[in-house]
Write a structure and sequence with these properties.
The protein is of the alpha/beta class. The chain has helices at 18-26, 38-42, 48-67, 79-90, 103-118, 149-158, 200-213, 218-221, 234-239, 244-254, 257-278, 301-309, 315-327, 332-345, 350-360, 366-377, 391-398, 403-408, 428-434, 443-453, and strands at residues 3-8, 29-36, 73-76, 94-98, 122-126. The protein contains 20 helices and five strands. Strands 3-2-1-4-5 form a five-stranded parallel β-sheet, sandwiched between helices. Helix 4 (79-90) packs parallel to helix 5 (103-118), helix 10 (244-254) runs antiparallel to helix 11 (257-278) and helix 15 runs antiparallel to helix 16 (366-377). The protein binds flavin-adenine dinucleotide.
Length: 457
């Protein structure tokens, strides 16, 4: 009887899963393994909202495997040690896993290769599992990655995607391999009250429903904050309960401008993956230094606290930050504004904001979070690094009726359309009765400080 191990990481699904397919083709029995690595905890990457979504994903994966005659084996410990121990316990000749891009994933892969090699076990790493096009598969002349999105998108769009594969019908798991009880979201304190539930089953249902009902509106509506037209698939893509290859193919098969715009966003995701794969240090260091002398968290403690809690006195920023606290998720347009406000208007180090996002976002992802923060801070790949978003103008444009602000900032629920983004314009007695804070900073002062710091004045 031959055995292979499938090490699941950010690919918690059975549909379109090349490592699982390859393991099933190579061996009679397969151990589907997920390792809860304390290193992830030590690095602060298992924030409660994500740990809860992850627990849902593992339970769903286990239930789907059981319906096919198998089960998920969960172990706790350093991932390299546990993968090696499981391979030894079941006499596996191969371990299959998906290629990752972060520094952590790259180190994991190297150490796995070494450790398994010493045991005579082969490591098989599969590309285009976590991204649609493998990081590094397309490169411009003279560089190891694309630093500009548009040419990357052009090239990426021409790339032939691999064939998708269906979920297996049966998975036979050797009895002898010991597993641990599955984690549960009920054990986790401090979850956002509106946190979505995770798992491949829900992810597939969500995509199918959204593609049927809202994808056609996506091109026109994706920036409308109150409309909430975007797919909300980001946590599913983060945990890999949905396959990006499959999503691109299914969207293309549907066709239309909405589908095209959605595919373009999936390309942004791949774009950031290929940047971080080539420059893993960009998760911490400025990708393009602009000689900023950011204010630190200590220097700006009160401003940072007001930003985090959604009481800056700028309704759109506050709505965004309160949505994050409540749902563990935020609309992209709101992320752009909230991040610009912290990094540029308040001139606080982007890493302070990125950390807070990572503490709460259910889709919080080292690749997309850090590189989007850098994009907004002007230290990343944005070709207009010094633009500063104005919360009042953004409000009038992307939340013209104020419905998004009123949803998240109840103090303003009775304020009319004209004043909802500028409540300070209301007569003094009305304003005082709202119980809503006055603006934390004059926007002109924030802009002047930023422009001075960047040498633009
Ligand atoms: C400051 C900041 C921080 C961010 N942090 C994260 C993060 O931690 N994790 C994360 O997944 N996304 C992050 N994003 C990107 C984007 O905001 C979210 O992916 C998007 O809002 C998720 O909503 P959706 O699934 O409805 O997106 P849709 O509009 O439906 O897009 C479909 C998918 O495309 C991908 N996508 C869309 N926009 C981007 C983008 N700008 N960069 C990379 N991928 C994108 C996502 O996987 C998304 O699920 C961040 C953006 C900003 C400005």
């Amino acid at each position: 009887m031959t055995v292979a191990v499938v090490l699941f990481t950010s690919d918690l699904r059975l549909h379109d899963h090349p490592p699982l397919r390859a393991a099933l083709a190579a061996a009679d029995e397969v151990v589907p393994l997920f390792v809860r690595d304390p290193g992830v905890h030590a690095a602060g990457f298992d924030a409660p909202n994500r740990a809860a979504f992850l627990a849902d994903c593992l339970r769903d994966l286990d239930a789907s495997l059981r319906r096919r005659g198998g089960r998920l084996v969960v172990r706790t410990g350093p991932v390299v040690r546990e993968a090696g121990a499981v391979a030894a316990e079941c006499g596996a000749a191969e371990v299959h896993t998906a290629a990752g891009v972060s520094g952590y994933a790259q180190r994991r892969e190297e150490r796995l290769r070494e450790d398994l090699g010493r045991r005579g076990v082969a490591l098989r790493v599969h590309d285009a599992v976590i991204t649609a096009v493998a990081a590094g598969a397309v490169t411009p002349a003279g560089s190891d990655h694309y630093a500009v999105f548009t040419p990357y998108f052009r090239r990426w769009s021409q790339e032939r995607l691999r064939e998708t594969c269906s979920a297996p019908r049966t998975v036979r798991v050797p009895d002898a391999v010991r597993g641990e009880p599955l984690p549960s979201r009920d054990e986790l304190p401090g979850l956002s009250p509106g946190l979505p539930a995770g798992g491949e089953t829900r992810g597939r249902e969500r995509f199918a429903r959204w593609a049927r009902s809202r994808m056609a509106e996506y091109e026109e509506g994706h920036d409308d904050l109150a409309g909430d037209v975007t797919s909300r698939l980001s946590p599913h893509l983060h945990f890999g309960t949905l396959s990006p290859v499959e999503l691109v193919q299914r969207a293309r098969a549907r066709g239309g401008v909405g589908a095209e715009a959605f595919v373009r966003q999936l390309c942004w995701r791949d774009f950031h993956h290929q940047v971080l794969a080539a420059r893993p240090e960009a998760s911490r260091r400025d990708y393009r230094p602009r000689h900023d002398r950011w204010r630190t968290e200590d220097e700006a403690a009160e401003d940072v606290a007001a930003w985090r809690e959604g009481r800056t006195g700028y309704p759109l920023v506050d709505a965004a930050m309160r949505q994050l606290l409540h749902e563990g998720w935020m609309h992209n347009r709101a992320r752009l504004l909230a991040a610009s406000f912290l990094a540029k208007t308040l001139y606080v180090d982007w890493r302070v904001g990125a950390r807070h996002f990572l503490d709460l976002l259910v889709d919080g992802d080292l690749v997309n979070n850090q590189l989007n923060w850098q994009w907004v801070a002007g230290t990343g790949t944005d070709s207009r690094p010094n633009r500063v978003l104005n919360p009042v103008r953004q409000g009038r444009r992307y939340d013209p009726s104020g419905a998004y602000v009123r949803r998240w900032v109840p103090e303003l629920e009775n304020v009319d359309e004209r004043n909802v983004h500028e409540p300070w314009r209301l007569p003094e007695d009305r304003r005082a009765a709202l119980g809503y804070p006055a603006p934390l900073i004059d926007l002109a002062d924030g802009l002047a400080r930023f422009q001075h710091a960047r040498g633009l004045d």
